[in-house]
Amino acid sequence: MATVFESLDDTVLRAYLFWVAVLTAKMLLMSPLTSLTRVRKMAFANPEDSGAVSRKLKPKLDDPDVERVRRAHLNDLENILPFFVIGFLYLLTNPAPSLAVNLFRLVAASRIVHTLVYAVVVIPQPARFLAFMGAMVPTVYMTVTTILHFL
Amino acid sequence: MATVFESLDDTVLRAYLFWVAVLTAKMLLMSPLTSLTRVRKMAFANPEDSGAVSRKLKPKLDDPDVERVRRAHLNDLENILPFFVIGFLYLLTNPAPSLAVNLFRLVAASRIVHTLVYAVVVIPQPARFLAFMGAMVPTVYMTVTTILHFL
Amino acid sequence: MATVFESLDDTVLRAYLFWVAVLTAKMLLMSPLTSLTRVRKMAFANPEDSGAVSRKLKPKLDDPDVERVRRAHLNDLENILPFFVIGFLYLLTNPAPSLAVNLFRLVAASRIVHTLVYAVVVIPQPARFLAFMGAMVPTVYMTVTTILHFL
């Protein structure tokens, strides 16, 4: 068995697993949010989708509300998925448990707020910028810590 | 060693690893499928790509067939990658082995069918909707199970 | 404890963890690169972003330089994230350590070059094609090896 796994702290690992599952749930909700927005705005991406509603309806790929939700979803892929990976690698660097748990909480809360102010109720900047940074800064910290640890 | 890993069942883990590798292969095939469609429709995204074919050819970003394959690929990122993560976390909740293995099979089969009816041979709805749900419902079930387990 | 983890080689695992962290850092840099390009070209995606600069500025979704960086970022999600998963699974197939470490190095170097020639300094084809293949070919090899191992 690889020795890097030996230092894994059970409490911190459970916190990681919990927050990863919560953020996965948040990400999965973006699909029905996109679908609901497509129905509300009657803006479907494919002819077989718009055609299922009405033969006269044409696909529409530039609805601003639908594209906003899609950008929020893509932003999740760009930030949450790398966090899932680097969050676990960071655990293998033997971090202080309370620091690690609080970083996971900060990332999770920030990404939930990011979705709310981006795709649910649009709030003027710098709301989205701060929510983005609340997840980006701890993720960068974990990444740099991991690189230096396994150098 | 963290105790959460102790309950990991070898048979279920091997089933997880196999289906994850199969779905990775499926996802990787989306890149050559996009490239082939770009060549077939002569719709390249970058001037250095279209220019390599003919100096007169301009980039084209709105070809419906290319965009369809790209949407199918993005849909894979949105659904298969979170499944990779939550599928493993779900294994740590000590599930019934036969249930877990069948959920993995259902997700994998559904996502393969999703690609076929979306990007290879377009089949009228609700084909794509059902294939999408065949993966989404078990993924949501695993996510909720994991959240409740590590609460 | 699952027996599949027993064969994990510590040296190879550390190489994997290091290169995954490096590629995560590379991916995270795509967000500020997009933001910088948006500011340089004054092409913001959302009215609350352009409005924060000037009330007269309208959102702009088709700037070629911004879209190029976004395509490079999406290409990372499509290729680097599956590599993170399959790279670890490949380690569980008990590969020759030197082969595994060199495959990781090849993927990492190729993806860094891919970003440079795609989104930083545009270099004519086949530069981007070769960089893409330098990561795709080893990733496919690892995927096929993993499928056959856990069949």
Automatic annotation (TrEMBL), chains A, B, C:
MF (Gene Ontology): glutathione transferase activity
GO cellular component labels: endoplasmic reticulum membrane; mitochondrial outer membrane
Known catalytic reactions: RX + glutathione = an S-substituted glutathione + a halide anion + H(+)
Pfam families: MAPEG (PF01124)
Regions crossing the membrane: 16-36, 80-97, 130-150
Enzyme class (EC, first level): transferase
Domain of life: Eukaryota
Main localization, broad class: endoplasmic reticulum
Function comment: Conjugation of reduced glutathione to a wide number of exogenous and endogenous hydrophobic electrophiles.
Family according to the record: Belongs to the MAPEG family.
Subunit architecture: Homotrimer; The trimer binds only one molecule of glutathione.
Name of the protein in its database record: Microsomal glutathione S-transferase 1
Organism: Anopheles atroparvus
